[in-house]
Amino acid sequence: MTEVTNLNQAEIKEYLPHRDPFLFLDSMTDIVKGESGIGHYQVTGDEDFFRGHFPGNPVFPGVILVEAMAQAAGVIGCHYRESKDNLIYFMAIDGVKFRRPVKPGDKLEFHVKRLTMRSKVWKFEGKTYANGELATEATLTAMIQSND
After folding, report:
1. Which of 18, 40, 53, 111 is flagged as catalytic?
2. Is the pTM of this model over 0.85?
């Protein structure tokens, strides 16, 4: 039987170096160690970037959606390594597609699944869903390095 783990934001902070205002995960659920998981983020509309992106028509920046998928992928890799002192270096983004805009009030899910793992380099498939609708997809590559 496969063990499934859930993490709250305080527990996520044990694995990732990201902090407010650049942590875009409220929780992670359905983590299958080293394989997959789902990150969650509630878009409040209070995020600072909405002041300029775009006044009168706030749209969650696509590049930050990709960053949030990468953070969810980082949690999967760091949780697998059982290391809580990590550096994560984003190496590549491939095949990015933006399917729908994300707006204040949207509930986001970042579905990440490991494709390959070679030593410190991991490749993931990532998909962002906004209120259940596909919003973004990409293939993400990162190097996860422990400071332990």
Report:
1. 53
2. yes
